[in-house]
Each structure stands twice: as C-alpha cells, then as structure tokens.
Amino acid sequence: RLSSPEATSSHFTECCGTAWKRLSAVQPKMRESVLLLTSCVVVCLLLSFSQAARQGQDIRCGACRALVDEMEWAISQIDPKKMIQTGSFRINPDGSQSIREVPLARSEGNLLELMESVCERMQDYGERTDPSTDRKSYIRVKSRSGESMDLSEATLDSRVTSSLKFACETIVEHHEDEIIEFFAHERENIKDQLCSKRTDLCDHALTMPHDEL
Questions:
Q1: In this structure, are residues 149 and 179 in contact, taking their beta carbons and an 8 Å threshold?
Q2: Does residue 42 surpass a pLDDT of 50?
Q3: pTM above 0.85, yes or no
Q4: Helix, strand, coil share (%) of the chain residues, nearest 5
Q5: Sequence ranges of the domains in the chain
Q6: How does pLDDT run across 172-207, given as a tens digit for each residue?
Q7: Spatial separation of the C-alpha atoms in residues 73 and 93, rounded to whole Å
Q8: How many other C-beta atoms lie within 10 A of the C-beta of residue 86?
Q9: CB–CB of 81/104 below 8 Å?
C-alpha cells in the first residue's frame, strides 16, 4: 500500500534523525582512531628518520676511525729514518735555498699517495653492534699478517663495506687538508682529534675504545 506524502516525509525525517544520532555517536571514536593512527605514523616516521641519521653518522664515524688506523699502519711500514727533501730549489736573494728534510713517511707526497688507496681497505672491515646502545662500530675482520681473527662479534655484509668505502672516499675528498695536517707529524689520539673535534664526524668518539692497529 502506498504511503501518503506526509507519512513518507515523517518516516524520512525519523530515519535521518536516527542516522544522525548514530553518526554523531560514531564520529568521536573515528576521530580518536584517526588521531591515534596519525600520531603513530608520525612517531614511526620520526623514529625511522632518527635511526637513519644515527646509522649514517655511525658509518661516517667508523670510516674516519678506520681511515686513521690504515694511515697509521701504512706510515709505520716505512723506515722513519728515511728522509726526503721538500721545498723550493730556487736560489733566494741571500744565496740560500728554502729546502728542508722531512721523514718520507710523513711527507705530503707520500700522504697523498696513501690517501689514494686507503679506502680500498674498508673491504677488510665488518660491523659490530653495541647491545646496550645499538650503535654501530667497525672492526677489521681480515688480519694484515694472515692470522685468523675472532669474528664472533662482527657482521660481514657487502652493503656495509660499500657504505664504509663511500664514506671514506667522501672524507678524503672533503678533509684532505686536515688529514695531511694531522699525519704530517707524529701525534697522539688522532682518531678523536680528527674524527670528533676537528671534523665532527663522531658524536660519541670520546667514549669509544681506542682500537689497536
């Protein structure tokens, strides 16, 4: 049976009223859910960005410290008594020459030569994770003398060594002058002096153990 227009209108109004009440009851919960979901997404993104930034800094710091180790070892393989003349052979007005002798191992020419190949040594390093802080550090996994090494704490990953090599090359490119300055003369604690205080590549270098060659 067909309903009258008045009855239809009344029924429609009643249905709309019921639907509005239900929607009004649901909307606050939906808003809470949306806000909660949005908050979770934002927090996850911030944590992800923070973790990525921290991993990037760990790689740069590890590359710098490994670079120092490799440079110091390479320098130690050259006879410290072997000298080389540097300066200008041009005769000064007073008849003298601006020539001086410096150890070959720490001469600018030798240091530049070492820097050309030092980053290739990053393939000899593995990653170690500190269980208490989740920070990454990088240790040699291949002995220079061929002896076996304890690799129980190290993770070997080609992606890690590639990242370490790239970071090393970037450091050499951007901090060539600083590297030459620090290795031109024998000095202590180059890792912290160069990697933290001068270049700020390590935010936690001063609390890290001093690795042995």
A1: no
A2: no
A3: no
A4: 60, 15, 25
A5: 59-207
A6: 999 999 999 999 998 999 999 999 999 999 975 444
A7: 42
A8: 13
A9: no
